[in-house]
Amino acid sequence: MSDLSLLVVVASTRPGRVGLPVSQWFVDAAKANGGFQVSVADLAEENLPLLDEPHHPRLARYEHDHTRRWSEKVAAADAFVFVAPEYNYGIAPSLKNALDYLHHEWRYKPASVVSYGGVSAGTRSAMALHASAYALNLFMISQAVNIPFVHAQISDGRFEPNETTGTAAVAMLDELARVAGALKSLRA
Questions:
Q1: pLDDT (tens digit, 9 = 90+) per residue, 51-93?
Q2: What are the residue ranges spanned by the domains of the chain?
Q3: Class of the CATH-defined domain 5-187
Q4: CA-based end-to-end distance of the chain
């Protein structure tokens, strides 16, 4: 078993969201891949209020328990996958807020995205995520999973990926493991 840890972040918090079945599929795929010990952070359960810390996150002077809990989860991860929808061509507000809560915890770690949506497959949201990641020294790799017409792939509450989606997940996970291993020494 790998000594690298992957945190899968479920970005959508909407009732009835398709992000949950997509993330459940991806978590199973990540565990089967074997490159990481996998954990999940569902932002609907994290329930982070709109950024409410009085000090800049780079100071790590957190006053709220919800921030300390979030900090511990993010700090413990060696890599991240954001399972993210596209809202109005952009990043989900819940994900932007979760990123902004912290600073050092994201540094020198690789990340990627499983984006989903309609015809664009959430790719505009995935690209918008790069700007926020850049400011945090969070390294977005180019391998990603983009799922077009996601509702057509949900059956009985389960996401049923096609072969292309499964192949993309394997390529992303393999690259994340390579980069996570290489970046680990920067965080030592």
A1: 999 999 999 999 999 999 999 999 999 999 999 999 999 999 9
A2: 5-187
A3: alpha beta
A4: 21
